[in-house]
Amino acid sequence: MSAVREVQARRLAGTVVTDDGxxxxxxxxxxxxxxATVVLSHGWTMSALEWRPHIEALxxxxxGFPALRAVSxxxxxxxxxxxxTAPLDMALLGRDLDLVLxxxxxxxxGPVLLVGHSMGGMAVQQLAAxxxxxxxxxxxxxxLFSTCVQExxxxxxxxxxxxxxxxAQAERLVADGLLRSAxxxxxxxxxxxxxxxxxxxxxLWHALFGRGPQTDHARADAHALRTIPPLIVxxxxxxxxxxDCAGRLGALSxxxxxxxxxxxxxxxxxxxxxxxxxxxxxxxxxxxxxxxxDLPYERPVLVVxxxxxxxxxxxxxxxxxxxxPRELALDTGAQR
Length: 336
Prior knowledge:
Elements (H helix, E strand, L loop, with lengths): L2 H9 E6 L5 E7 L7 E5 L10 H7 L10 E5 L16 H14 L8 E6 L1 H12 L8 E7 L16 H19 L1 H12 L9 H7 L6 H11 L3 H11 L16 E6 L7 H9 L5 E5 L6 H4 L1 H17 L17 E2 L1
Parallel strand pairs: 3-4, 3-5, 5-6, 6-7, 7-8
Antiparallel strand pairs: 1-2, 2-4, 8-9
Helix pairs in contact: 2-12, 3-4, 5-6, 6-8, 6-9
């Protein structure tokens, strides 16, 4: 492929229009002839841009693993995608992912691996619950990062646990402030992001998302959050509470599924990841030390290694995957 055609292949973009008029912007990277496709689904207040380093690594060939095709998209109301008119809930995001798979740039004759972070992981679960027939014949594996099976952001009240009390109070403040009025939403929006130079220093940010590496990723997250209208942020914050796939994820047990969570994740903590793993027989759970909710962006190599591990798992199960994967040790700390 010429250099010009290669650049074009890595920058293809399309738009999927939903029944309620939302325009979902989709990006395709790598050769359409790749024998496996990775579909990346981002989290709340983020966008497809967050997957750039992962895509660069996945679409490059390396020993034992040929270049893969990667598809990313902006969730409705995020990035360049529009909001649409339907009431927001997590089931709707699962239907959006279904449309991206069927109408966009995912070939039907090769294995598809789904990677979802936080809200994106919920979209993957909703797809599995609503369209189980896709899993096995077409969707061949899934990686779920920093997500939960139900009750997103739920913090059990423990009287003697002051950190849990602060976390629950912060969640109530965000929920009430965002939904009270447009003015309150703008105020909470600013309090949540804090000073853009050091957003993690903001008490509200720290209470919601917890401790973790203080890097440029926190600043990027805060900038991304401020680009989304406050009322859209509020709608999605409320919609996250509608997620409940407990007892409905049998389709994911038919394909290799890996679950990763940061040990310091406050929004979807390790306990929730354990509940998710218990709901998917055969799933593998990894807890990553010293990492918070931004695990796939703080440690992008883990996403790449996890995709390669899924290909290895698929091959061991007798599935069709490109090449002959070599063993990769996942540097993820504790394994269940």
